[in-house]
Amino acid sequence: MRPSYRPRLVNGPFGDPGLYLAFQLQNRALLFDLGDISALSSRDILKVSHVFVSHTHMDHFIGFDRLLRLSLGRSKKLHLYGPAGFQENVRGKLAAYTWNLVQRYENPLALHVTEVRPQSRLHAVYRCRDRFRPAEIREQATCDRTLVSEPAFTVSAAILDHGTSCLGFSVKERFHINILKARLDELGLPVGPWLGTFKRAVFSQAPPDTPIQIAGGGSARAGRAPALGDLLPQIARVTPGQKVTYITDVGHTSSNATRIVELAQDSDHLFIEAAFADAHARLAAAKHHLTAGQAGRLAARAHVKRLTVFHFSPRYTGRGVLLEKEALAAFEQG
Ligand SMILES: [Zn+2]
Ligand SMILES: [Zn+2]
Known about the structure:
Blueprint: E1 5-9, E2 19-23, E3 29-32, H1 42-46, E4 48-52, H2 58-61, H3 64-71, E5 77-83, H4 86-94, E6 110-116, E7 120-127, E8 134-141, E9 146-149, E10 153-161, E11 165-173, E12 175-179, H5 181-187, H6 194-203, E13 215-216, E14 219-220, H7 228-235, E15 236-240, E16 243-247, H8 254-264, E17 269-273, H9 281-286, H10 292-301, E18 307-310, H11 320-333
Parallel strand pairs: 3-4, 4-5, 5-6, 16-17, 17-18
Antiparallel strand pairs: 1-2, 2-3, 6-7, 7-8, 9-10, 10-11, 11-16, 12-15, 13-14
Helix pairs in contact: 10-11
The structure holds zinc ion (ZN) (2 copies).
């Protein structure tokens, strides 16, 4: 199965935390945490449509300026999500600069910012042409943890405790459409953008009689467009979607553990912090971080298929393997 998105850590395990999730066949990506993002190319950063910030400690938010700098002057709608206090953090960042000329920009950037609170969401829009003054401020009462719901995937959050409110995130593909290349060849159908249209029709549950225009080699094919319902079983297999979870900067409390296990349940890939070795569990608790063993045990409890640990404390520089081994041993022992 070729996954429709591919997650990768922005930095090595000792660098600032961050997960970049690029969609295949689409000029688009999601970004989890916004610390040092200098390892990402400008091109990769400009693909980002949604940014999910766990909390606003510097190592998770200092990249806001680079993202903003690159996005300025572009016709772009950028969605940002963060925990309680996030609107004030974004306003503080924006207030650091002088915006006397930006209202003349032809391509207006807009930041759509959502603060995730326990019982509500606080939305605001910051438009370049309004000199980034907050507008359309509204509070929406909800306990729903789904932040983004698109035909192809959803993003959910859990509110966790890190001495401050900190969000964990999960991306779930609704289902996965595997195009059978051999069947396309047998039927004499070309590979082309029409497959994207076909997939979108499946995701949006279009009626089976929806015609699918097959184009290839720069021209539309002659003859009647086949119906979606006839085409689907012939050229594709639908399988369960991929789930990826990102957890960082959390103390090992029982309420955090319960929420993490619930959010990460059955993930194909869990990215989770392992800041300290098990021998330093007291230090980890004092700093509201996980040990590697705790991270591994949470992964086992959540029955994830694959585990990647990151956000190692600099005290283990040169000994990162120790943290990986502790996490993996705990994961395998369950
Ligand atoms: Zn932190
Ligand atoms: Zn951190």
